[in-house]
Amino acid sequence: MYRVLVFRTSVRKRGRVRYLAPYLNNLINGHGRWNFDLEDCDNILRVETQNPDAVDISGLLQKHGFLCEELH
Question: Which of 13, 33, 58, 63 could serve as a FRET partner for 52 with CA atoms 20 to 30 Å apart?
Answer without folding.
Answer: 13
